[in-house]
Amino acid sequence: MLGPVIFGKWPMESSEQTGNAAAVIHPAHHARVLTRIKLLHSAVWLFMAICTLLIPLTSLLGRFQISAVLTGVVLIECAVLAMNRGKCPLTSIAAHYTEDREANFDIYLPMWLARYNKAIFGTLFVCGFFFALARWLVAK
User: Fold this and answer.
1) Distance (Å, rounded) from C-alpha 33 to C-alpha 44?
2) Residue 40 in contact with residue 90, Cβ under 8 Å?
3) Tens digit of pLDDT for each residue in 49-73?
4) 45 neighbors 107 (Cβ within 8 angstroms)
C-alpha cells in the first residue's frame, strides 16, 4: 500500500497491549495522515488550477511556448485521471483513512467546487486551449 510508504509507518498497538491477535491502528493516526493527504491534494489542485488559468493569459501576452508547456502539464494530469477511472490517485489513498465519501473528503475545497471541479476546470481548460490556439494561429 502506498499510504504507509509516503506518510510513514502506521503506529500500532501490539497484541500484548490490546489482547487481540491482530494489531490495531490508532484513529488519531488516520486523522493525521488524512490531513497530510488533504494538504498535498489541495496543493496539487492549486498548481493545476493555476496552470489551467494561465494558459489563456500567457497566450494573450504572446508567450505561446509557456502556454504549450502549461497545456502539456494539464494534459498529463488528464492522463493520470483517465488511468485512474476519473479519480485522482490521492483520493484512493485518502479513502483508506476515512469512511467519509463527501465530494471534498480528500481535499480542502468548498463542497460545491469539489463536486463540480472537473466540469468547471475542464471547461476552462478547453476554452483556454482554443483561445490560445486561435491567438497562436493569428500571430503566426
Assistant:
1) 17
2) yes
3) 999 999 999 999 999 999 999 999 9
4) yes
